[in-house]
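Before surveying the methods themselves, it helps to consider a single example record, giving the amino acid sequence and backbone structure tokens:
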Amino acid sequence: MNHRLLFLPVLVITFFSTALFGQEKTNDVSFETLVSSTKDWEGHVLPKMKPGQPELTVVSVTIPAGKQMPVHKHPVLNGVYVAEGTLTIVLPGQKETLTLGEGKAFIEVTDKWHYGRNDGETPVTIILFYSGLEGQPTTIYKNPDDALN
């Protein structure tokens, strides 16, 4: 079979797919992928999704200047968008932190104790996007008397 004949349909399909679904045909609406990854911000591969009824949750959080969130972990996959201010993420007991400013996004760690803090002089607003199962908690707060595990 002539390989050139196979190439032509692939080229035509690629061209029309780009023309029909690419950004050229979005009526001047622009799309920007802020973050997409199979790994969290530490570089660890995200855990497999469990079977069940998916549930998406979107939450807005505001952290006042000089304050921090309680230590917590997420048993579900989630991403974060920094809408205002600068957010620092801390993993207790580790030196590595992540600091991101307004307009940045990242993939959060899963099942690891951490907290966000606002070292700035203005409030930080973040938008959290959770992907879990119906009825599953998105966040578990650490009891201050428990050791970090």
Residues 22 and 135 are 37 Å apart (CA to CA).
